[in-house]
Amino acid sequence: SAVADLLLAVDGVTVDFDGFKALDNFSLTLQRGETRVVIGPNGAGKSTLCDTIIGRVRATDGRILFRGEDIGRLPEQQIVARGICRKFQAPGVLPNLSVADNLALAARRDRRWWKSFGFGIPVGERAMVEETLDLIGLADRRAVMAGLLAHGEKQWLEIGMVVATGAELLLLDEPTAGMGPAETSRTADLIRDLGADRAVLVIDHDMSFVDQLAASVTVMHQGRFLKQGSVAEVRADPEVAAVYLGH
Ligand code: ADP
Ligand code: MG
Fold first, then answer.
1. What is the ipTM score, two decimals?
2. pLDDT digit string (tens) for 159-186?
3. 151-164 and 181-192 are packed helices; what angle lies between their axes, rounded to 10 degrees?
């Protein structure tokens, strides 16, 4: 039988910025193998949710459990070490390193490693680099300096860097920012391919992208949970239309 493998539980989390609740008693669970899209109008609290999961912002109330462990008081580096990794809106690739070396660096999770260049990619990281190059579709671009990639390719490389860390929970905040329709569609394919062993939390407000991802959707509004369901269910919901689609 398929026993649910709960990876993340955000349990009644409130984040209070001097009386303003960016998150207000918000809850969400994520199983291993699940991709969830969180949508909501600007200011709904989506980025704050990611900031809180990764430990950059502290919950003023509620708990965050990762594989059953309360991570709510851990520093960010320890949360990352436990297997959560976040991709930010702006690409954070190292422009003067090749695509493959950016991935090797992420696999190593050691930002000093690249300074000892000249030794090539350490053996332990090679398999992860090859696997990730295939996953993000940049195998033929492996030797290209990351700074010379097109915007979409940089975003895919950065998703690859998140994957290469070996993280089990990937947080992707607006992975299609600045992309045209063709790149957006390829990004949806890539995220669908991220595999059954991980869980992916995607934040976006591009409904065509959400349609293509075909994942379950959680709608936030003013820091609160509003709705959860399939894209079709969420699209047909009048409350969602009022707060989000009509925006
Ligand atoms: P979203 O990503 O859904 O657009 P955010 O999580 O960035 O929304 O922001 C939610 C609300 O919280 C916004 O009104 C924002 O101005 C506010 N906010 C975010 N960070 C802070 C902060 N550090 N201090 C005060 N208010 C903040
Ligand atoms: Mg945001």
1. 0.98
2. 999 998 889 999 998 899 889 999 999 9
3. 10
- In angstroms, what is the span from residue 47 Cα to ligand 2's centroid? 4
pLDDT tens digits for 27-66?
999 999 999 999 999 899 999 999 999 999 999 999 999 9
Q: Nearest C-alpha to atom 24 of ligand 1 is from which residue? A: 17
Q: Where are the domains of the chain?
A: 6-245
CA of 178 to the centre of ligand 2 (A): 14
Supply the pTM of this predicted model. Answer: 0.89
Closest-CA residue, ligand 1 atom 26, reads: 17
**23 close to ligand 1 (CB < 6 Angstrom):** no
The pLDDT value recorded for residue 9 is 97
Just give the CATH number of 6-245.
3.40.50.300
Closest-approaching ligand to the CA atom of 41 = 1
Q: Determine phi and psi for 107, rounding to 5 degrees.
A: -65, -35
| C-alpha of residue 110 to centroid of ligand 2, in Å | 27
The answer, yes or no, to whether any atom of ligand 1 lies below 6 A from the CB of 42, is yes
55-78 burial code (b ≥16 CB/10 A, e <16):
bebebeebebbbeeeebbebeeee
